[in-house]
Amino acid sequence: MSTEPTTDSQGGCECGAVRYEVAGPLRRVVYCHCQQCRRTSGHYVAATACLPGHLNLVNDDGLRWYRSSAIAERGFCGVCGSSIFWRPDHGEYMGIMAGTLDTPTGLTSREHIHVDDASDYYTIDDGLPQLPQEHGKLWEKDGV
Fold this sequence. Notes:
- By secondary structure, the protein is mostly beta strands.
- The chain has one helix at residues 35-41; strands at residues 9-12, 19-22, 29-32, 45-50, 55-59, 63-67, 72-77, 83-88, 94-97, 109-113.
- The strands form two sheets. Strands 6-7-8-9-4-3-10 form a seven-stranded mixed β-sheet.
- The N and C termini lie close together (10 Å).
């Protein structure tokens, strides 16, 4: 299992109206079980992140932003509905839905957050750390 940060990745929405490139490391995948993530994705979210300056929008014709809370907004495709980004107001990182990355991603998973808000139709049994709330900084060049 690779422990090095993934670099130079590409991704986008289902229909192609949003395409992006990341020229830098991606954080390991964090699974978020909060109600907002579940409602905007249809399940819990698997997300990575990058530094904002490392993200380049190649095509943003379909990109729309939705203010989902007092601290962040979510980027999605207005054409096909794909959930793509989570952008916190502090601007320290840009969350990227891991499923929007072209494969192979080279990513590994790190932890589950907001497990106290998880739904009742699934169990979390993959052995990763399970945190009741958000874990510290969600952008770290952790490499582990």
